[in-house]
Structure prediction request, 157 residues.
Amino acid sequence: MSLRRNSQNQTFTISERIDLPDQAYDPRRRQYDSDKLLMLLSSLSVDADRVLGVTEVDLYVEGLNFVFGEGLSPGKVCVISTYRLRPEPYREESKDLFFQRLIKEAVHELGHTMGLGHCRNPSCVMYFSNGILDTDRKSNSFCEICKAKFSFLYRPR
Ligand SMILES: [Zn+2]
Ligand SMILES: [Zn+2]
Prediction:
């Protein structure tokens, strides 16, 4: 694990690959319970403000057919799945589209960890994606209302 810096001088590390717990797998649904993955991430002793898990397996939470990701709100950990974000192969824009989707879902779940809920603005990153079309329609940033909420939650005290 090595410390890296992004363009805003924030540091991050990419951890080693972590095995998924068998008990998180539901053989009937053929999906992983994302609540259990969040519990796993919470149990790791990581010296970071936030932890974002990225997995290739299909995720669900009770009551929904699938989820693109989930985040504790507010909390330290969140997870996203690439499973339903992959565009159809062999399309020119595939790689960029996949990358854009990943960013949107990552920002969305990290937004939850910061205490933000879902937003009614379909172009806001905190809009709930029912399907991939919703993800493609929304932007990768917060709307003015969510920005204001964020500033309120993180105002200096
Ligand atoms: Zn959400
Ligand atoms: Zn918003």
In short: Residues 94-113 form the longest helix (20 residues). The first strand starts at residue 4 and ends at 5. Residues 119, 121, 124, 126, 142-143, 145-146 surround zinc ion (ligand 2) (CB under 6 Å).
